[in-house]
Give the backbone structure.
Amino acid sequence: MTIHQLSIFIENRSGTLIKVLDALKEANIQIIASTIADTADYGIYRLICSEPMRACDELKRAGVAVALSEVFVIAIDNEPGRAADAVKAFSQADIDITYMYSFLNENRGLLIFRTNDNERAQQIITANNMQIISEEALQSLV
Amino acid sequence: MDNTETLRQPHSSLTGGAGGGSSYFNPSFETMSREQIEALQLERLQKTVRHCMNNEFYRKKFAEAGITPDDIKTLADVRKLPFTTKQDLRDTYPFGMACVPLRDCVRLHSSSGTTGNPTVILHTQKDLDEWANQVARNLWMVGLRPDDVFQNSSGYGMFTGGLGFQYGAEKLGMLTVPAAAGNSLRQIKFIKDFGTTAIHAVPSYVTRLYEVMKEEGVDPRRDTKLKVLCIGAEPHSEEQRRRIEEMMGVKAYNSFGMSEMCGPGVGFECPEQNGMHFWEDYYIVEIVDPETLEPVPDGEIGELVLTTLCREAMPLLRYRTRDLTRVLGRSCPCGRNHIRLDRMRGRSDDMMVLRGVNIFPIQIEKILMQFPELASNYLITLTTDEENDNMTVEVELAQPTDDFKQLLDLEHEIRRRLKDEILLTPIVKLVAKGSLPVSEGKAVRVVDKRKVYQ
């Protein structure tokens, strides 16, 4: 069970990030979590937000290069070592985590990540009794 | 062939009286008055046009234009002749514009032909001799004499800067070192060990040599016998030339050549360094508006059009060089009344010259369009960084992606395939769709920010 994430191609020059954020503001979309990965010339801005489908349409209308992608979100206990345990489970199953970011919500940590094999990642999540977060549950945060 | 007969007398350094204490390699030709130059040009033009009648391509062109050799009665009648273009050379590839039997030819130079058929230029033995004479005349003009040691650090092979300068320097009588381009440490060793007094190279390579000299603790002023640099085959500004002179501590002279005419030798600066003398005993020089093809007044920039007057194997009539320049004058304190042209200011077509390599935007476009990941909008920007010309290719992504590795791989692959095509590695920048400027009408594909064109 994956959730929708927006991936936005942004060039490293001033004004590009503002263009994205302004478009989201106009559309009354709220950001739940986000991260930017960068190279010298461009970056990918990844974000989880309210109403991802509508957000995607609004961004496209504003001329932003955006793609929808699917990522997992799992909740882990708010204590040291839990992220290591979770990642180890995937690593032992030879599943690559392409990227990951996280945030703390009330008393739990939320890990957002993408894998190279969603089907097997789902099996590992189930087998290890990890607490997976649905899109609905995530939307209820805003 | 009676064209050749007359042409055979003039230029030999033996009959021309080269050498001795003279400032001129071919005194009688170099110091002609304008009247003498123009009388000689008319005589040679008439012979050249008659000679062109040996060739099917020209016979057809003349017929289409409704002219015969008898219509050339004054020098201004050159304007009755049809233009020739690089496309004509491609269309008649390989031997369709030869005006002598192949058995009379001794040399062939060819372009790489990256944008279609290559072009071929044929030479008879006399063509080669005349070419060498032009180069020798130039080298003599900037003060080189048989005692000098000439190191030709230019590419050899099909690139005419190699053999052109080799034969010219030898004709002058210098000890000539065919060092070719590259291997800077060996170049510097030669310069020191052989007592090199003159170097020919593209300007960016002179800068490179200087950098290596600095690294090696060699001071060109203290540790070498250099006195002259010949630089050309690459557009460069007056400022770049001054910087090169400052670095190396010697005068650097601008050289103009093109393989269609022969190679280097067509035009060269005299010690005044105020424009290049184009040798009007060898060429008729016209500057025309590239749109209307009408002549432009002296001082105004237009396209350089050249007619060969001494070529046997492949005379070219009113050849459109696509280089933009202007007339600076027809007299000079050096005593030569051969026309002086400004350094080249750009091109009337979209060809780019980068580090001595000719590149057309269409070559870049062809490669970019092979990638389904890319949209069709792209922009090529040329810049000068230190002394080196750089090319940046910005291209729009068709689809955004969440996969970083895919973007990096894509960039890498674009760079690799572009390098295979244009022989230079450009900087590739992926940009978001819709982020490049969209112009109305004809898309602007190339922005040239190099100092030379400013």
Summary: Chain A has two domains: 3-68, 71-139. The interface with chain B takes residues 5, 7-11, 16, 37, 39, 41-42, 44, 46, 63-67, 69, 98-99, 114 of chain A (CB under 8 Å). The helical segments of chain A are 16-26, 52-61, 82-92, 118-127, 135-139.
